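Quick one: structure tokens for this chain, please?
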Amino acid sequence: MREDEIRRLTEKYERGETTLEEEVFLFENVKEPDTPWANWFTFLENNKITPPEDLNDRLWESFEGGRDRKRKKMVWGMAAAASVLLLVSFLILGPRQSNEQDFAQKEALFKEALDMIGSMEPAAIERTIVYENEMVIIYTTKE
């Protein structure tokens, strides 16, 4: 019975279907050197490593630290992007130093245009009324 059970458990172990209790049973009970798994189980038992007691706490601290680092990187990236955007907008728009000069030029051009219009006399155009109403007057002209 014991050999059949060990054989069944070793086949299950090869397929990766054993539970933790079954593996412990195999490691403890397969000590005979004539079995093919004896060397392997002896090796595993001799090289067993126990995890440190504070492993769980250190893992959680590293997870939390990674989240904080990502957040800090995102904040620094956003700040850099905002700085670049401000710099580009100042370079493109720039402060207008010649506002008064632009206004003076526009005023001079406007006066010149008014002078040109004022010197022109309207041509005498013959108009005949086609339809007249209280709201609308329709003219025709001859040119």
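The beta strands are 126-132, 137-142.
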